[in-house]
Design goal:
The protein has 315 residues and is of the alpha/beta class. The chain folds into two domains: 2-198, Rossmann fold; 207-310, Methionyl-tRNA Fmet Formyltransferase, Chain A, domain 2 (Roll), CATH 3.10.25.10. The protein has helices at 13-20, 48-55, 69-76, 94-97, 120-126, 162-185, 218-227, 300-306, and strands at residues 2-7, 26-31, 36-38, 43-45, 60-61, 82-86, 104-108, 131-138, 148-155, 235-238, 241-251, 266-268, 276-279, 284-292, 297-299. The strands form three sheets. Strands 5-2-1-6-7-8-9 form a seven-stranded mixed β-sheet. Strands 10, 11, 12, 13, 14 and 15 form a six-stranded antiparallel β-sheet that branches. Strands 3-4 form a two-stranded antiparallel sheet. The longest helix is centred in the middle third of the chain and has 24 residues, at 162-185. The protein starts with a strand and ends in a 9-residue tail after the last helix. 37% of the residues are buried.
């Protein structure tokens, strides 16, 4: 089986690794976006998928777009029987979708048609889902609308961050892919159309999504901290600087007698893991660790020793 892989982040490297070691699978090429400058030094970095592919001696292709005819011909010359896509970050044009005899298969970290689009993991956490999952689907020209080949659910405990849940779901998706790849090629697995009426579309995360809105409840803000880890994080502003809220927990109003504080008011608390909390529209948000702009991460207690005036501040 001649297989072409498309992907980008570290989270999907295990999927490619399992394909490279899979019996009867010849990975004839790996597609990933161009190298990009990152960090304060703006040093050019390779996508993690490229790093792994080069280590394994695989052919790597990094076109900025697959729409030009020469780029599509270069792909067709690899003669893939099937293309596997996992967090590639680009919609595939019709010419690419029609190249392999057995189509382009995509691993999507949600139970489609729920949570189509670019942020399915974060959105599941934001919405307080008790379960999510992964879908193996046949790609079409639209975003996550193609027929479903297989799915597997995954229960949520309510403590997951997007940072730890995403690789878990792609690991599950890789297993689902290997279980269904040969049967799919053999024509033994049907692809079932999605119910468009049940579709929920997610949006791309923005930096501004991470700014704490104290008119939300403490429960909602705690979900945001987990959903937006590692980016954009949950943060607020104090004395002109960004204060990242690295670890937080909701406290119900019943657990604290102070119920008449304005949202955004910083309070001193006792009897909890942390000495401070912030009032929200519904409940208090215990602040366990923070990082002030330009400083290192600190526990709340350590931060207050350096900035005692933070207590009673209005954010």
């Amino acid at each position: 089986m001649r297989l072409l892989f498309m992907g980008t982040p570290e989270d999907v490297v295990p999927v490619l690794e399992s394909l490279v070691s899979g019996p009867g699978i010849d990975v004839v090429g790996v597609y990933t976006p161009p190298d990009r400058p990152k960090g304060r030094g703006r040093e050019v970095e390779m996508p993690p998928v490229k790093v792994f592919a080069l280590e394994r001696g695989l052919l790597v292709f990094q076109p900025t777009t697959l729409r030009p005819e020469p780029a599509q011909q270069e792909l067709a010359d690899l003669r893939p029987d099937v293309i596997v896509v996992a967090a590639y970050g680009k919609l595939l044009p019709k010419g690419v979708l029609s190249t392999p005899d057995h189509g382009c298969l995509n691993i999507h970290p949600s139970m489609l048609p729920k949570y189509r689009g670019p942020s399915p993991v974060a959105t599941a956490i934001l919405n307080g889902e008790t379960a999510t999952g992964v879908t193996l689907m046949l790609l079409d020209e639209d975003m996550d609308t193609g027929p479903i080949i297989a799915q597997r659910g995954f229960p949520l405990s309510g403590s997951e961050t997007a940072e730890d849940l995403t690789p878990t779901l792609f690991q599950l998706g890789g297993e689902l892919l290997l279980e269904n790849l040969e049967p799919w090629i053999a024509g033994q697995v049907p692809a079932i159309n999605q119910d468009a009426a049940r579709a929920i579309l997610t949006s791309k995360l923005q930096r501004s999504d991470g700014e704490a809105d104290w008119c939300l409840s403490a429960v909602e803000l705690e979900r945001r901290r987990r959903a937006f880890t590692p980016w954009p994080g949950l943060f607020t502003r104090w004395e002109g600087k960004i204060l990242k809220l690295l670890d937080v927990a909701p406290l119900t109003l019943e657990s604290d007698a102070r119920q008449n504080n304005e949202p955004g008011q910083v309070l001193s608390i006792s009897g909890h893991d942390s000495p401070m909390a912030i009032a929200t529209q519904d409940g208090l948000l215990e602040i366990k660790s923070v990082q002030l702009e330009g400083r290192r991460a600190q526990s709340a207690a350590e931060f207050l020793r350096g900035y005692p005036a933070f207590i009673k501040a209005k954010l």
